[in-house]
Structure formats: structure tokens, C-alpha cells
Design goal:
heterodimer; A: GMP Synthetase, Chain A, domain 3; 3 strands; 10% strand; B: Methylamine Dehydrogenase, Chain H; four-stranded antiparallel sheet; globular; WD40_PAC1 (chain B); repeat (chain B)
């Protein structure tokens, strides 16, 4: 990490990053477009009935995004959200076993866009995202972190490593690697 | 369709509080060893499902794998492999359960040594691998121990059995191009199978004092997570209308040429069965050097083997399959993985209806694999890392004349569950 690989990355304004309460310009089309008249489903879900407190609040893509957007890039003093390494449209939540009715298992897929196609830190960034999600989400979630297709020269290799449970488990016991990951997480609240 | 049933018999208690990777049943005693991320190995009883002892202090990181040495009398010997890159050998005198029945006797005669007999003795640490050890396996005689690691190598160690815990490195094989995830010895021969991150399965034999690769099977399109061998006496199941004795004897004579088959499971969500081609067939086919790519001048051509795909088991898993277990008692296959599912498969003879199959001499025996039971969420929401068959030893089994078996599954939350199967 002595040599910065991408000297001039594209940086997004923090104010423009999507949030739940204040949609960014990119998504605000919905509000003025044909859906303007449709009430936001969130308005119904947040009714103040007492029973609601007992139910597990469903976890959506925005919440996943909020968990990972503040992770720091290992070589820039910027977050993965600001660098658009992670972005809301590249996060997907799907039932893991769609054919098993009532199965609580859900798969979170996060597609990562490295700032340059030969970034050697792609694996570390991916590992950071995976570790962050595994530590924050309930165990019923299966975390699938991969490089977005066509954005990295050795994407398949990186994906195979990130998908290997045994390698990820061993990495968590590797002190030097975990120091790097911990540093990346410092900026998460 | 699935007529059989898998029923939970018991949990092993108390469980580890961290991820457990694998549970190895003892070859003769009703005990199992469970490897945990908390750096310990827990030994549980299959008689009352309780924790007997915890082996700790030997490894600095997760214990990933363990295997009991076969054919040891009066003593149990366990090999453990850890993410700390070492392999540990542990010994303990066999007196589990004996203390309960004749406790008084033991106290009188062995009062002095009683205390230390309870303990697992750390015998030796095998140092050699550069990174996490993933799998260990004892040869059928117990003379050789195979170990493999993320460093892409397989080591074969000889237990010198000299009373001084000396092991000698017999071979280091480095043909795999990625982590070697699993090693497993042939049930009767000194032939080792390995599988790994390079998606291949390789077979290894000793030839003129040198261990070398005799086959490389490229059939999976993802990491090969686990391997298991068919029992030497296994025969597929026959249905009521089939002539059991003639099918069985025909099967045995065909089998004597190719030997036990190999079972593999993978990240590609498939489970495959592999069969060695009998020597005369394989030599008629391609020249054997073509099979391994090693020029015959380096390895005598006689050593190379041709393995072909015998079957692909019905698709049943939605995420990576971490383990398969082929029962030596019933011939049933169990598989488990990241989707939290246990699946049981059975192989049956198919009655040949087309005349073609009848004309060939000897008649080619056909079999078919089918799913006979599925348990979803077998360990709740957790991933299942391992499955193994063991002899049933609790009181519920006493009445039956026939030897019963249980399936032992090991999961991410530290739980180990024991299941019975009703066919």
C-alpha cells in the first residue's frame, strides 16, 4: 500500500448519496413522476400500533447500503459510498430458498465496482464488506459479495476467494489482515 | 416420493459456542471428536450424547479437521489439523465408560495414575505446512497420515510407532494449483484421493518408492469440498421383483475389477460418483500418459489410472455442498451444505428393459440414484459444515438385532446433531 494505485478517483458528494429520509436527486424522479400520487408503503409500516415493536423490522437494500457505505477505502481517505465502490442499485436481497415456504434464509448480494480494473485491493475491499455484513446482520442472512461483472481484470478469481467460507474464516484469524479491515471499519459508526 | 424419514435423536451437549467444522466418529468406540473455531476439540459420547472431555491448549487457531487412527488397541489416537498450520497428535488410554462400571477396582489398582488417565496426552506436533491445514486422513492400516493445506501441498507422514511419537515425512505432493480442501484414503488400498480449490480431484499412489499422481479428474466446475469412498462390501438396493442374489453376484464380479467408487461434492452444487476403469479397458483406450500429461519416461505407464464419471446425484442443494458421507453400513449417501439442508440418497438396481443391455455379455448392470429424504433447516438458520455416519450406541438401539446407524451433522452455530433414518 505504499503506492497509491488510483491517484484521481471519481468522488461523489456525500450529500448526493442515497439515504432513507432524503432521497438523492437520482431517485427523486419517483416523487414527481407517475408514482407521486401513490402513498409510500413505508407510511403504513411505520404506523404506531404497539404490535409492530414485537415484529422483526424487515431489512431492505437501503439498510444494507447504510451498513457498508461508510467503510473506508484502504488507500484513500474516502468511503466506499463516496467512491461509488458500493452503490444502492447494486445491492439485492432475495430469498435463499424460494421453493421452501416460510424459510427465513435470505441472500444479500453486493456487487462491488473497483475504482480501477486492476485494483489489487479489490479482495481486501470485498472482504471488508463481507465481514461488515456478517458482523451486523442476523445469521439467517447469507452474504454474497462479488465484483460487478466487467469491472475488474481478475474478477472471477476475486469472487472465488470472497465466496470461499473457509478462506474468509481463516482471514478473520489473520492478525495483519484484520488490522487493515479494522482500520477500514473505523469510519462506520 | 420421499418415503424415508430422518428423525432427530439428540443434540450433543453442551455445544461449542463457536462454529464447529467437523465431527469424526471413533472407529470402534461410541465416541466422536468435534472440531471447533474456539481452538478446541470436544469429545462426546454417542451413548448419552454428553461431553466427555475437551482437548485444548494445542492449537493457536481454529481446529478445522480431525481423524482417529484405526487399529490401535487399548488407546485412542487422534490427529487434528488447524488453521495455525500444524497437525497435532493426541493420545488417551481407552477407559471411557469403564470407570462407571468398575470404579472401585480402578481406584484401588490405579489410584496413582487415575488422574492422568483421564487426560488427553499431547504427543507430537507435525510441522511442515505453510498455511491453514484443511483436512487429515489415516490410511486403512493406520501406518500413514495424509494432511493437506492452503499451501497447495499434500504431505504423507509415516507413523513410526516407535513409542517415541516419531513421524517421518514420506512424501510432499504439490500438483494441485490451489488450496487442497480434502484428503481421503481408499478403504482398503494405499491410494489417496484429494480435492480442492482448483476444482480437480487427484489420485495418488506409491510406485517404486515414490508417491505420485496417477489420475487427475476434471469434472467439477467449482471447489471440491469433500470426498468419501464407497464401502468395500456395498451393493445397490434391489426391489421386491428383482432377483437379489444374481444381481448381487453380478455386481460383485464387476466391482472386483474396478474397486470402490469415489464420491465428491462441490461448490458447483453437484455431487458426483467416480469409477476407475478396469486396467484392460483403460489400456485399450488412450495411452496412459495422455491421462495425466506426465511423459511416460518419468512415470511408468502402468501406474496411471483412468477414472470416469459413474453418476451425478439428483440436484438438491441451492448453495455450496460442504460434505458428503457414504455409509459403509447401509450404502446411503448424505449431503449437507450452506443451505442448511440434509439430503439422503439411495442407489437402486434398474431392471434393464431394452434388449441392448441384455445382449452385452456380461450384462451391464444399471443403477439409479434417488432422493429418499430431505430435512430443511436441520440446524435452524445455520450452515451445516459436515456429516458423518456412525454406529448407533444409545439405549434405543439395544432391541434391534441388526446393527443400526446414526447420522451426525455439525453446524456453524456450534451445534452437533444426531439423527436416525427410517427407510
Amino acid at each position: 500500500m505504499t503506492e497509491v494505485q488510483n491517484l484521481n478517483p471519481t468522488i461523489l458528494n456525500v450529500a448526493d448519496l442515497p439515504t432513507r429520509n432524503r432521497p438523492s436527486k437520482k431517485y427523486s424522479d419517483y416523487e414527481s413522476g407517475i408514482f407521486a400520487a401513490v402513498p409510500n408503503p413505508a407510511d403504513f409500516l411505520s404506523s404506531d400500533s404497539e404490535d409492530d415493536d414485537l415484529l422483526e423490522e424487515p431489512i431492505d437494500e437501503q439498510e444494507i447500503y447504510d451498513l457498508i457505505k461508510l467503510i473506508s477505502d484502504p488507500e484513500h481517505p474516502l468511503s466506499l459510498g463516496e467512491l461509488a465502490v458500493v452503490s444502492l442499485p447494486d445491492i439485492f436481497i432475495k430469498p435463499t430458498l424460494p421453493n421452501v415456504p416460510g424459510s427465513p434464509l435470505q441472500t444479500v448480494t453486493v456487487l462491488i465496482t473497483p475504482t480501477i480494473t486492476h485494483c489489487s485491493l479489490a479482495t481486501v475491499i470485498g472482504l471488508g464488506v463481507r465481514v461488515r455484513l456478517e458482523q451486523s446482520l442476523p445469521p439467517r442472512f447469507r452474504v454474497d459479495v462479488r465484483i460487478k461483472e466487467g469491472t475488474h481484470s481478475t474478477g472471477d478469481e476475486v469472487n472465488k476467494q470472497l465466496g470461499d467460507k473457509e478462506r474468509v474464516a481463516a482471514a478473520l484469524e489473520n492478525g495483519a489482515l484484520m488490522q487493515v479491515i479494522a482500520k477500514m471499519m473505523e469510519t462506520c459508526q | 416420493m420421499a418415503k424415508s424419514q430422518i428423525t432427530l435423536l439428540s443434540d450433543l451437549t453442551p455445544p461449542s459456542l463457536e462454529r464447529t467444522w467437523l465431527t469424526s466418529p471413533h472407529p470402534t468406540l461410541p465416541i466422536v471428536a468435534t472440531c471447533s473455531s474456539d481452538k478446541t476439540v470436544r469429545v462426546y459420547s454417542l451413548t448419552n450424547f454428553k461431553l466427555l472431555s475437551t482437548i485444548s491448549g494445542g492449537h493457536k487457531r481454529s481446529v478445522r479437521t480431525a481423524a482417529w487412527k484405526p487399529h490401535v488397541t487399548g488407546e485412542s489416537v487422534l490427529a487434528t489439523g488447524s488453521f495455525d498450520a500444524t497437525v497435532g497428535i493426541w493420545r488417551r488410554w481407552d477407559n471411557y465408560g469403564k470407570n462407571e462400571s468398575n470404579a472401585a477396582e480402578v481406584e484401588e489398582s490405579e489410584a496413582a495414575s487415575d488422574e492422568e488417565d483421564e487426560e488427553w496426552r499431547f504427543a507430537v506436533l507435525l510441522d511442515g505446512h505453510d498455511s491453514e491445514v484443511k483436512s487429515v486422513s489415516w490410511s486403512p492400516s493406520g501406518m500413514l497420515l495424509a494432511t493437506c493445506a492452503r499451501d497447495k501441498s499434500i504431505w504423507i507422514w509415516e507413523d513410526l510407532d516407535d513409542g517415541d511419537n516419531n513421524f517421518e515425512t514420506v512424501a510432499v505432493m504439490q500438483e494441485h494449483s490451489g488450496d487442497v480442501k480434502c484428503v481421503s484414503w481408499h478403504p482398503t488400498e494405499e491410494c489417496l484421493a484429494s480435492g480442492g480449490y482448483d476444482d480437480t480431484i487427484r489420485l495418488w499412489r506409491e510406485d517404486l518408492d515414490d508417491w505420485g499422481q496417477v489420475a487427475c479428474i476434471k469434472g467439477h466446475s467449482g471447489t471440491v469440498w469433500f470426498l468419501d469412498w464407497e464401502g468395500p462390501e456395498n451393493t445397490p438396493r434391489t426391489s421386491a421383483e428383482q432377483d437379489t442374489s444374481s444381481l448381487t453376484s453380478a455386481w460383485r464380479s464387476q466391482r472386483s475389477l474396478s474397486g470402490p467408487r469415489l464420491l465428491s461434492c462441490s461448490d458447483d452444487l453437484s455431487i458426483r460418483v467416480w469409477r476407475r476403469l478396469p486396467k484392460e479397458f483403460s489400456q485399450m483406450g488412450m495411452s496412459s500418459s495422455a491421462a495425466t500429461g506426465i511423459p511416460s519416461i518419468i512415470r511408468p505407464t502402468g501406474a496411471d489410472e483412468n477414472w470416469e464419471e459413474d453418476a451425478v446425484l439428483p440436484h438438491a442443494h441451492e448453495l455450496a455442498i460442504y460434505a458428503v458421507a457414504w455409509s459403509r453400513r447401509s450404502g446411503l449417501v448424505a449431503s449437507v451444505g450452506a443451505d442448511g439442508r440434509i439430503v439422503l440418497y439411495e442407489e437402486r438396481f434398474v431392471t434393464a428393459t431394452d434388449s441392448e443391455a441384455m445382449e452385452t455379455e456380461p450384462p451391464m448392470l444399471k443403477t439409479e440414484w434417488s432422493i429418499i429424504a430431505v430435512v430443511d433447516g436441520a440446524h435452524g438458520i445455520y450452515e451445516i459444515n459436515h456429516a458423518a455416519w456412525a454406529k448407533r450406541a444409545d439405549r434405543g438401539a439395544v432391541d434391534e438385532a441388526e446393527e443400526q446407524e446414526v447420522l451426525v451433522t455439525t453446524a456453524d452455530d456450534g451445534s452437533v446433531k444426531v439423527w436416525t433414518v427410517q427407510r
